[in-house]
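Tokens for chain A. Residues wanted.
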């Protein structure tokens, strides 16, 4: 159920935004609702202590807090233009970057696997981030997380439905590259694959202003990841490396997380490393289970690179889970 404190104000503000951006603010206003009831006023009238109280109640890292603070600043500026805010430079506008650094959770240089799972929908959604709208985006994150990528996103760009063996739960990457090992896909991934393939529209995101359109049509060209098109006719062109990076960049802007290919891949390795460690398997480049679950999945074939990968993986697991899980 959606909760909007002083709903008339918020609905008027939301109506000036496109659908995708409304989605973020509705989620954010649902977060502020209990605090607005607690203090008896709209968040644009919160003082600095009240804003700080709200932020301390959220499990946000620093980069994410920067993003949502900017969203609230946009709402405050709107309230000032509408002569709704009582004192212009009190509350959200007073919050500095140093203030946010003191409030935010420690910001590691590794994305916690649970963040990726929440964004893809595999774990409870809406807890720390507004759920992603596009299934194409969710599936993109999911595939990078489980090891699908290739040089300049070769695998992601060229994936077609024929590369998915749903009966045996396999992604047939060997059909794209004879030297590549096929990798497993779980039931959640299969369901997400079907949703991504069925998607015909791609919703756009713009935090600052209302777009002329809320979404674009997706190309119907037989590939899993498809370009959005503004024309009447489909061009049939494949999605490009640049377009995939742009989608990740917009998702990063949407969530406040550094959703680069490298960071998502590291997160996926950390997740698998934790699963192996929990089973009592030593994280060593010579262990067969590590070879199958990490090196084969993420296509790491060079022995020196494998050694460096394990060393980095242990450091990353230590940052995310603590020393006992990375030994």
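Reply:
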């Amino acid at each position: 159920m959606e909760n909007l404190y002083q709903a008339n104000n918020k609905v008027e503000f939301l109506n000036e935004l496109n659908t995708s951006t409304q989605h973020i603010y509705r989620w954010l206003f649902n977060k502020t609702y209990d605090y607005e009831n607690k203090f008896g006023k709209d968040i644009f009238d919160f003082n600095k202590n009240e804003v700080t109280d709200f932020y301390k109640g959220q499990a946000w890292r620093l980069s994410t807090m920067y993003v949502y603070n900017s969203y609230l600043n946009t709402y405050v500026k709107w309230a000032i233009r509408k002569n709704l805010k009582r004192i212009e430079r009190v509350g959200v506008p007073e919050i500095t970057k140093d203030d946010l650094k003191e409030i935010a959770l420690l910001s590691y240089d590794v994305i916690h696997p649970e963040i990726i799972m929440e964004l893809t929908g595999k774990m409870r959604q809406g807890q720390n981030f507004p759920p992603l709208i596009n299934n194409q985006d969710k599936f993109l994150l999911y595939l990078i997380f489980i090891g699908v990528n290739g040089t300049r996103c070769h695998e992601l760009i060229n994936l077609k439905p024929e590369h998915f063996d749903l009966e045996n739960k396999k992604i047939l990457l060997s059909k794209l590259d004879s030297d590549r090992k096929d990798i497993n896909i779980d039931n959640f991934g299969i369901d997400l694959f079907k949703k991504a393939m069925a998607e015909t529209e791609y919703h756009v995101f713009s935090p600052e202003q209302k777009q002329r359109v809320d979404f674009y049509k997706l190309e119907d060209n037989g590939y899993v990841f498809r370009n959005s098109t503004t024309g009447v006719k489909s061009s049939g062109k494949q999605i490009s490396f640049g377009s995939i990076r742009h989608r990740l960049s917009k998702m990063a802007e949407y969530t406040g997380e550094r959703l680069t290919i490298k960071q998502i891949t590291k997160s996926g390795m950390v997740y698998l490393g934790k699963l192996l460690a929990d089973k009592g398997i030593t994280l060593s480049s010579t262990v067969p289970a590590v070879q199958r679950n990490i090196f084969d999945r993420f296509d790491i074939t060079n022995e020196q690179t494998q050694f460096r990968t394990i060393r980095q993986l242990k450091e990353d697991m230590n940052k995310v889970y603590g020393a006992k899980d990375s030994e």
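The longest strand covers residues 215-218. Residues 108-327 form a domain with the hpI Integrase; Chain A fold (CATH 1.10.443).
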